[in-house]
């Protein structure tokens, strides 16, 4: 009888350990998923802040360069695309369009020394640079969380738990497009 009791206790202990492993794996997936959601939220907050700065920038530059209507329309269209983007890939694509349009606005500003000296314009430039830095940091945080979640989903025993509950999905990385990767990876040519 004591051998049967010991076997029963061992079986119960194994079941309890398995339940604890499953609970631990599930809770780890929940935590990682929430961390990635938080990181994505940080990105959207910074993108919204930048989008809110853009109308002020456009109005300031318009006062000096009224004949650049197409550039201002492009910035407005790109800003709207960022605000309406859904998901990581759409947001990244819309953001690249906005960055291109903003670079044209700053190129216009180079042609107007009075505009470059305008205090409001300088403050907007500083605020935009600050928000760009924050967006970069938020992207890195998001990508780190996405990597950790994507890895955890594939590892044992979390992969079994995820197959049972099935609601934790891999996340896309917020990546630089292939065309820009080639430019980044190419070493600059230095000539003296």
Brief overview, please?
By secondary structure, the chain is an all-alpha fold. The chain has seven helices and no strands.
Helix content: over 70%
Please identify the oligomeric state: single chain
Q: Point out poorly predicted stretches.
A: 182-192
Beta-strand content estimate: under 5%
Number of strands: 0
Q: How do the SSEs run, as a string of H and E? A: HHHHHHH
SS summary, helix count: 7
The biggest sheet amounts to:
none
Structural class: mainly alpha
Mean pLDDT over the residues: 83
Please state the overall shape, judged from the principal axes of the Cα atoms: rod-shaped
Radius of gyration: 25 Å
The span between the termini is 91 Å
Helices and strands in order, then pairings?
Blueprint: H1 2-62, H2 69-84, H3 87-110, H4 113-117, H5 119-154, H6 158-165, H7 178-185
Helix pairs in contact: 1-2, 1-3, 1-5, 2-3
Overview of the molecule:
The longest helix has 61 residues, at 2-62. The protein is 82% helix and 0% strand. The termini are far apart. The chain contains seven helices and no strands. With 192 residues, the chain is mainly α.
Main traits of this protein?
mainly alpha; disordered C terminus; 192 residues; 7 helices
